[in-house]
């Protein structure tokens, strides 16, 4: 994939519009507080007018922040985050005040234009910024000529091609060590390992950890397998694996599977480590060729490794028999 250097143009125009709206609203609150409060059916006493003008000044300051953020939404995402938090808390505060009888229902119209209509675009900007941060500094901004298959080595100093030239290799690309599904995958591999190897296939684990940690695999009986540490996701990219989308990483089905695997499956719920947005995958690699691959549609997908190996090694075995 190509790393986007700049946020999409719509983010700039959206933040410019938000800044302009805040300036206009703030100016109206400062210079015409009585008219605004009257329209909202709020009693405009002396102290209320002064308080409303103060709110207008604060809203205007938010407008300046949005104009700054418009210059680079990804770089200035903290300003967008502060604004988003304010827009979430505003309606919540109104509901408490309305429930207590201190504000009329008509005051809720202000929440619609000041807060609610901005939730979705601000959330999209923040998601884009977070995803961008997981792309920079790794293989997704490196030249396409990068060749990690030849350069990266396993924990015992061998190259992927060296192993795959001997016999087919099941190359399992894992997610970060804190991922419930990563531990579930290690558990599944541990149970199916003997049959996979009996079918004539080796297993190579690829992970995003900066350093090899055999203890993470020892409980599953995988600590003696060759492992490749790929913290910048160079090999992931070369095999066509991408950074996950929101639904792939945090969709409802992913959450449901995570709870089932983490709590009921006994694999735990860990904290994000390394590049937690990297998607996993499984490939059968032999003599410089990818015989087949399984790319996860969701982080929670659970391939049956033994079936994958048997299905793809059968044609190879038949060809060798001839």
From TrEMBL:
GO terms for molecular function: antioxidant activity; oxidoreductase activity. Residues 159-242 form the Alkyl hydroperoxide reductase subunit C/ Thiol specific antioxidant domain. It comes from the Bacteria. Keywords: Membrane, Transmembrane, Transmembrane helix. The keyword Chloroplast does not apply. InterPro entries: AhpC/TSA (IPR000866), Thioredoxin-like_sf (IPR036249). It holds the Pfam family AhpC-TSA. The keyword Transmembrane applies. The chain crosses the membrane at residues 12-37, 49-69, 76-96, 116-132. This is Redoxin domain-containing protein.
């Amino acid at each position: 994939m190509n790393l986007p250097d700049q946020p999409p143009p719509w983010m700039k125009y959206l933040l410019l519009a938000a800044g302009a709206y805040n300036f206009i609203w703030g100016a109206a609150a400062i210079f015409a507080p009585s008219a605004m409060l009257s329209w909202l059916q709020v009693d405009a006493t002396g102290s209320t007018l002064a308080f409303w003008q103060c709110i207008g000044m604060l809203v205007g300051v938010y407008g300046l922040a949005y104009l700054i953020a418009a210059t680079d939404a990804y770089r200035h995402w903290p300003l967008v985050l502060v604004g988003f938090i304010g827009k979430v808390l505003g309606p919540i505060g109104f509901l408490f005040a309305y429930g207590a009888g201190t504000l009329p229902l008509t005051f809720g119209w202000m929440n619609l234009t000041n807060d609610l209509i901005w939730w979705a675009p601000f959330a999209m900007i923040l998601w884009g910024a977070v995803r961008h941060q997981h792309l920079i500094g790794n293989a997704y901004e490196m030249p396409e000529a990068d060749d990690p298959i030849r350069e990266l080595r396993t924990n015992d100093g061998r190259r992927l091609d060296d192993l795959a030239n001997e016999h087919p290799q099941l190359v399992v690309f894992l997610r970060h060590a804190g991922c419930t599904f990563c531990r579930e995958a290690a558990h599944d591999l541990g149970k199916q390992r003997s049959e996979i190897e009996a079918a004539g296939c080796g297993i190579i684990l690829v992970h995003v950890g900066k350093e090899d940690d055999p203890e993470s695999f020892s409980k599953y009986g995988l600590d003696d397998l060759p492992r490749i540490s790929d913290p910048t996701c160079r090999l992931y990219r070369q095999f066509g694996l991408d950074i996950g989308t929101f639904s792939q990483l945090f969709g409802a089905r992913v959450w449901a599977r995570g709870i089932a695997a983490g709590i009921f499956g006994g694999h735990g719920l860990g904290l994000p480590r390394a590049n937690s947005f990297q998607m996993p995958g499984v490939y059968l690699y032999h003599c410089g060729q990818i015989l087949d691959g399984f790319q996860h549609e969701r982080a929670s997908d659970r391939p049956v490794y033994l079936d994958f190996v048997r299905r793809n090694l059968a044609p190879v075995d038949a060809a060798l028999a001839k």
